[in-house]
Design brief:
The complex is a heterodimer. By secondary structure, chain A is an alpha/beta fold. Chain A contains seven helices and ten strands. In chain A, the strands form two sheets. Chain A has a six-stranded mixed sheet, sandwiched between helices. A four-stranded antiparallel sheet of chain A has the order 2-1-4-5, with helices on one face. Chain B has one domain. The longest helix of chain B is centred in the middle third of the chain and has 38 residues. The chains are: A alpha/beta, B mainly alpha. The interface between A and B is large, with 45 and 37 residues.
Chain lengths: ~250, ~210
């Protein structure tokens, strides 16, 4: 596909400029983000780290077009998303961004296959094409033999794999993963991280993940630390002096 | 899927949810919660059965009187029946609204997920309305048949030759009318819950822990 050309055309998958977000709770105003400016290049694997309450999730919602900033600008593929109307935002969420959640968020009444076809149905793809592609994607994430299973018949790790396949359905430019390993045990978490890394390399999709999980650091190109609504520091993996290996536990 | 190289022009407007897919998704939602769907439907069945039985007894009485050549003499009795029927229908609509509101609350996360995957407000509204329409249609059909039989039986206990003298055209017309009223009212009752579901911001929907 034309990925190389696209890379050249769009250097930054995500850019935020002095993004602020305040929540009004009664008489109190809470500044969740106090001006965050970050640039994420196409094809990067980024981890956003920070303690809970640091504004990590808020920033994440801004980047995903799930919530609007109170100030500043968010660019996805060089388009300022604060200027988009509801129809355009839905289009953006459908085609440009794939979401992976801590709680998997598969539709419980649908099979793995149907869950994966849903974004393609929303994108107007014909039913048969969508099914074929969903089956391919499920095979890609290693669930080729479980496409007819409902989410509750799958383990947590398998559900998250379905979510990964679903996130890829419309060939998004970005995958946003919110604590993707938060509900998984050590080994399954590592498998999901490895899967995300592989998708990042093979498909050239930009991955941005909000996480507490130190295992994530090892595969990230850069780590953005958020603290108290601001960017605390941005590290490249090569600069990391963490002994990640010792945190990983035993090999299976 | 070709990737658009243009940036600004690359953004388009999301518009599609083919009816066939929408019906499929809505039917699946009904089927998976079949027990609760049945309870919701029971309200419609009862209200429409009542409506149909009242309408049918009216037709039976009229048919008998026409065959017998007598004058029609229904008075205050009919207006009380109209009131009772209207109230039962109203109760039915309120029941539907309540059941759908609970269904929306229960599916916050599902709705949020769909919106994250690119569903427009309108898609969600459409799914809920189709679901209500299906419940309403099935419930009304069952109710209308039950009510029709009940009306005939009531007529038979009062008069002779009910079946032979019955004006079938007129009775069937009322049956269809009752089904349409039932399905229509169910959809009306679902409008508010569906709109509430549709308007939910995806971020809020994701945050809700249930």
């Amino acid at each position: 596909m034309a990925e190389a050309a696209v890379d050249a055309a769009r250097e930054y998958a995500v850019k935020t400029l002095d993004v602020k977000k305040e929540y009004v709770m009664g008489k109190q105003t809470l500044m969740a983000l106090k001006g965050v400016s970050i640039e994420i290049k196409t094809g990067e694997y980024i981890s956003i780290m920070g303690p809970s309450g640091s504004g990590k999730s808020t920033l994440f919602n801004m980047i995903g077009g799930l919530d609007k900033p109170s100030g500043g600008k968010v660019y996805i593929d060089e388009v300022d998303i604060s200027g988009l109307d509801a129809f355009e935002l839905a289009w953006l969420r459908c085609r440009k961004i794939g979401y992976i959640f801590q709680t998997f968020n598969l539709i419980p009444v649908m099979t793995a296959l149907e869950n994966c076809t849903l974004p393609m149905v929303f994108a107007g793809m014909s039913s048969q094409d969508a099914m074929d592609k969903a089956a391919d994607l499920l095979a890609l994430v290693g669930l080729g033999d479980r496409i007819r299973h409902k989410p509750l018949e799958l383990s947590g790790g398998q559900q998250q794999r379905v979510a990964c396949a679903r996130a890829l359905a419309n060939d998004p430019a970005i995958i946003l993963a919110d604590e993707p390993t938060g509900n998984l045990d050590l080994k399954t978490g590592k498998e999901i991280i490895a899967l995300l890394r592989r998708l990042n390399k093979e498909k050239g999709v930009t991955i941005i993940s909000a996480t507490h999980d130190l295992k994530m650091l090892d595969v990230s190109d850069r780590i953005i630390w958020i603290r108290d609504g601001r960017v605390d520091k941005i590290e490249r993996r090569s600069d990391l002096d963490l002994e990640v290996g010792s945190l990983e536990g035993e090999e299976a | 899927m070709p990737v658009d190289a243009k940036t600004q022009a690359g953004i388009r407007r999301q518009i599609k949810l083919p009816n066939r897919e929408a019906v499929k998704i809505a039917l699946r939602s009904v089927r998976i919660r079949i027990w609760r769907s049945c309870i919701t439907m029971a309200g419609i069945v009862l209200a429409i059965a009542f409506l149909t039985s009242v309408l049918t007894s009216g037709v039976v009485a009229k048919s008998i009187q026409q065959t017998a050549g007598g004058a029609t003499a229904e008075g205050g009795d009919a207006s009380i029946q109209i009131w009772l029927t209207a109230i039962s229908l109203l109760v039915c609509v309120v029941g539907i609204t309540n059941a759908m509101l609970m269904s929306v609350t229960e599916r916050y996360r599902e709705i949020g997920t769909m919106k994250c995957l690119g569903a427009l407000d309108w898609f969600v509204v459409k799914l809920f309305l189709i679901e209500a329409g299906v419940l309403g249609l099935v419930g009304s059909l069952v109710g209308a048949l039950l009510g029709f039989v009940a009306g005939l039986l009531a007529g038979m206990s009062q008069y002779d030759h009910v079946l032979s003298s019955l004006n079938w055209g007129s009775a069937l017309l009322r049956l269809v009318l009752a089904v349409l009223i039932g399905a229509g009212l169910t959809v009306v009752g679902a409008v508010y819950p569906a709109r509430r579901a549709g308007r939910m911001p995806p971020a809020d929907a994701m945050r809700t822990e249930i």
